[in-house]
Amino acid sequence: MPFDVSYDCDTEFVRLLSRDARIDLPRACLELARDASPALDFRQTTDWIAARGEELAAKVARAWPEQDALRSLAFSLGTDHGLGGNERCRDRADLSYLNRVIETGMGTPVSLSVLYMAVAERVGLELTGVAAPTRFLTRFETTDGPLFLDAYDGGTIHTWQDCVARISAESDLSPEQIALSLSPAEPRSIVVRMLNDLKQVHTRMRNWDQSWLVQYRLAALMPSSYRERRDLALVALKANKPGEAVELLGFCLKTCPSNEQAYLTEQYDNACGALAKCN
Questions:
Q1: Which residues lie closer than 8 Å to 61 by C-beta, 6 or more apart?
Q2: Which residues constitute the domain of residue 230?
Q3: Are residues 171 and 83 in the same domain?
Q4: 265 with 137, same domain?
Q5: Neighbouring residues of 163: CB distance < 8 A, sequence distance ≥ 6
Q6: What is the pLDDT of residues 50-99, one digit of tens each?
Q7: Do 19 and 146 belong together in one domain?
Q8: 123 inside domain
Q9: How many angstroms from the chain centroid is the CA of residue 8?
Q10: Which pairs from 186-189 meet CB under 8 Å and 24+ separation?
Q11: Average pLDDT value for the chain
């Protein structure tokens, strides 16, 4: 199925589709939020980010050593403005949206990290996202080595050794894999991680209309991924889009693994039956 990749109002998402590295990450995330709130005004979020930068500018300019600048950022957002998360946040799709993080003070590891990165950029600090396996973090380079800020935990700061020990205790990754997981993440992979967070929540909550919008973006970003096309086909059927489901499932049946053939054939027949009822 050819994807409609125009996304006329989503300038940053279009850049992601074309693999342009010059991405305004906060705006790209707001474009995802607009799927749930079509009338969303981005200015409220961007104004909030700018205001936090103005609050921090003088403190960061005076900070020395460089770690103190990071601590000022963490204290401002994590303590003064109370941004953080808890396990209940993972079951709320709206807390992946930057505007809702600002409104509620709560967010997911990814959405909180994006806000930290955006405010840091306003005051000349370079925070990069880190797609660690157990929790998304941000990374700050110092002359003594990288520090990692956990926005989900209220802005706590950790050393490389702290993070390696934590991931080792919570996963089966090798030391080489752990080191790789703590490398800076590209904006594209950050957006994909946010979309996957949304995908999981919408699936658990059986919110198929929003799941379709999320899955469509994932499939557009990864057009060669059989898994994303298969998931889009299955979501199409659940979202009462039998025409799209028939087309997508027909494509998947041509390339699917043998162990999925029977199930996808059954879903294809269901989609054909649903489509016939619509005609």
A1: 123
A2: 224-278
A3: yes
A4: no
A5: 132, 137, 148, 182
A6: 999 999 999 999 999 999 999 999 999 999 999 999 988 889 999 999 99
A7: yes
A8: yes
A9: 21
A10: 186/21, 187/16, 187/21, 187/23, 187/25, 187/28, 187/129, 188/16, 188/19, 188/23, 188/221, 189/129, 189/131
A11: 95
